[in-house]
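Chapter summary example.
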Amino acid sequence: MPLYPPATIGMTLAEVDTPALILELDAFERNLKRLPESLGDRKIMMRPHAKSHKCPQIAMRQMALGAVGVCCQKVSEAEVLVEGGVTDVLITNEVVGAFKLKRLAALSKQARIAVCADDAGNIKAIDEAAREAGVTLDVLVEINVGANRCGVEPGEPAVVLAKQIAGSANLRFGGLQAYQGTAQHLRKVEERQNAIAAAAAHVKRTRELLKAAGIECPKATGAGTGTYLFEVASEVYDELQTGSYIFMDGDYARNDWTESRSPRFEHSLFVWTTVMSHTGSERAIVDAGLKASSIDSGMPRIADGGPAEYIKAADEHGVIKLNGATGYAVGDKLKLIPGHCDPTVNLYDHFICIRNGRVEAIWPITARGALW
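The structure predicted for these 372 residues follows.
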């Protein structure tokens, strides 16, 4: 980690060094509140996904607004969050390997920890790790509801694993993990709605089979920023795993949000960058390249909405095609909207929190690089 962040509290935004990860606090706080407000009086739990922010300060703010806990993807992320004060973490992923399982079991002595599984051998290994640690772990069966990533097939295959968990001496059956990740970025509202209808049907059928087998299913958890109101409407989900809503990014902005029930989350996360070269009339070069913004979901967008476009990224350079835009002199600074917030956050050590054009706070991204 660098010896110091690119800003100090009280500094103007113009003075913040670059590249930096900027969090506009007013928009961020409106997004934080907009999610629970959009749920109205519906009886459904919020468990935001901390892989988006990797920051205990943000997790604690989400819990202060009613979240029951947070999600994460890796044991190391969970360890950082618990150390930062989070008391309830669901690892929405499979954890494999004796060393990781030992750490998982040990962490459950400090907070409520749950994990997902889709394999009988892995369940047996989790049970053994829990036995050695003298703890009881909650394990959810992950079912494949259309993303074709992790997850046992819904229906009878999921019931078989739930029976194994329920019959293990050191495990509790925690419910179903049913996240339809590919649905989040289907562009049309109808496409997202149809994908979640199919996912919900899988969840409903699996819950019915569990009930018929005499197995209580404490919850079905899933959903994301692009679809969560459809999961709510299905009435088969009990818990929402929205993550990107606090930031939004360029890829989510490409979704169609015209459907009247969709809340209007705002861009609050930006990469702050400086023009470092402007030697031709058609281009400017900024100091934010591949190491400053993820491009897996497309190039970052220039936040001012003008004609200029960010068209190419190298390790340390970003190429701006000006398209007739002016004002890109060497030393000028501008905001970029990252294409994908999660991996972009993982490139930085700090959120530089801005309000009214000044640095109000600096939050460490404590779980940066927590990949194991």
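To summarize the output: The chain has two domains: 13-21+264-364, 42-246.
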